[in-house]
Design brief:
439 residues, mainly alpha, Hypothetical protein af1432, 3 domains, two-stranded antiparallel sheet, two-stranded antiparallel ribbon, 19 helices, 4 strands, globular, disordered N terminus
Length: 439
């Protein structure tokens, strides 16, 4: 299936003055000084605030009810915004607490190069404000950005590039998710699985992030392009534009790989190293094959995790059977539904079916067939490594099915011209929606 940028453009336009961002700014003003550096006007030229005004929650309604003449981050500042030295300290702290990332900066020249490349990242005032806002109000997002900067710089250094190129990559990694500050934090933290229209701000955030940093000449154009591509995948399964293969820039490919690897270490997830290893083995067409071996080298260098996988073997097998059945149901639903829709909708069904074929091969290669699962139940209790593989496989298959469902909705909205889902497809989407989140 071939899409243009307009086919898969985010349904929500990038907005530098989004209500979510204004809310975060005014909330920050409750705990530390946030002051207007200059007068703030709306688009009709009406002055909303004088320069030097303390901004806090009491001003939220005034700011959010107007379309501002300029991006808010260009008109405000806070005391002690984040500095290059503090970025270096945050990277050192991240490597000290996470063995996987510590491998990227062993003591000596390699560590010095990595930290030097990150400390050299340009920090125009609005960008420093965004990073300060993330550190103070969304610490998990800030740590994710720090880990991204480390991994991006490391992979570029692995390729033999100089410190300047490491800094370019680290810049893209550090700033790739600034747009998430323009997505409602309460929605993300609600614990409710997002689908349909609720996901639109998420599809927009790469565009918002790119727009925010494209304003500054301090950043090469390749950084802005890579940032908008950081959720694209080589097989076309990513967003916001569904780019395929060489349509994704080299730096965008790097960022795409680093994003999925780093995400496994977010939020205290269990067994992240095992999940990364499995993800890269089961999704070989989605990521740059020249970069993946560096990740596997890091994984092999880690000591074995002594912690066993929680949950009984019967629960793991039942879960895998449930997910494998849902995958099979998609093939039936897509085949039965294709004659009921037009060519554009058929192309969407085929694109998701191609992804399902990849998942099916993943299961066969991992030995996840009804016969193999039955043999597991008849044999002795498998060792911790096998149990861990089953656990990680169930997690990954669950995630991939949910991602396919979200892609189906997204592409259908863009390409199917208002057609309703055929009953079999709608039933499959409902079944995916009803899946319990993995433990």
């Amino acid at each position: 299936m071939t899409e243009t940028a307009s086919d898969l453009a985010p349904a929500v336009a990038a907005d530098p003055n989004s209500p979510a961002f204004v809310k975060a700014v005014t909330q920050l003003g409750q705990s530390r000084p946030v002051v207007s550096r200059e007068a703030i006007y709306n688009q009709q030229g009406v002055k909303l605030l004088e320069g030097g005004v303390q901004i806090d929650a009491k001003l939220y309604d005034r700011l959010v009810s107007h379309r501002l003449a300029a991006p808010l981050d260009e008109s405000i500042d806070t005391d002690a915004p984040i500095t290059s030295a503090q970025l270096r300290q945050a990277c050192e702290a991240a490597m000290a607490s996470r063995p996987f990332f510590a491998l990227m900066g062993p003591p000596g020249r390699m560590r010095s190069m990595l930290l030097q490349s990150i400390e050299a990242i340009a920090l125009p005032q609005p960008v420093a404000f965004h990073l300060t806002l993330a550190r103070e109000t969304r610490p998990a997002l800030f740590e994710h950005s720090i880990l991204m900067a480390i991994l991006c710089a490391h992979l570029v250094r692995e390729g033999g590039a100089p410190v300047y190129d490491m800094t370019v990559a680290a810049t893209a990694g550090l700033l790739h998710d600034l747009g998430m500050l323009h997505v409602d934090a309460q929605m993300l933290d609600s614990g409710v699985r997002l689908s349909g229209d609720d996901r639109r701000p998420l599809y927009a955030h790469p565009v918002t992030s790119s727009m925010l940093i494209a304003r500054f000449q301090a950043y090469p154009k390749q950084v802005a392009r890579a940032i908008v591509e950081h959720h694209e995948r080589l097989d076309g399964s990513g967003y916001p534009r569904g780019l395929v293969g060489d349509a994704i820039s080299p730096l965008g490919r790097l960022l795409s790989l680093c994003e999925v690897v780093t995400a496994m270490f977010d939020g205290g997830r269990k067994h992240p190293e095992q999940r990364v290893s499995l993800l890269l083995r089961v999704s070989p067409r989605r990521f740059d094959a020249a970069l993946v071996p560096s990740i596997h080298r890091l994984l092999r260098a880690l000591p074995a995790d002594p912690n066993d996988v929680e949950g009984a073997l019967t629960d793991l097998v039942d879960r895998l059977r449930e997910l494998a059945n849902l995958l099979n149901q998609w093939h039936v639903a897509a085949a039965d539904s294709a004659p009921q829709v037009d060519a554009a909708a058929q192309a969407v069904l085929k694109a998701v079916a191609d992804q399902a074929e990849t998942l099916q091969r993943m299961l066969f290669e991992a030995g996840i067939t009804p016969d193999q699962l039955g043999l597991l139940m008849l044999g002795s209790e498998p060792d911790a490594q096998v149990r861990g593989e089953l656990w990680a496989l169930a997690r990954e298959l669950h995630w991939q099915l949910c991602a396919s469902a979200n892609q189906l909705r997204h592409r259908w909205r863009a390409s199917a011209r208002g057609q309703a889902f055929p009953p079999a497809v709608a039933a499959w989407l409902d079944a995916i929606e009803a899946l319990e989140a993995p433990a």
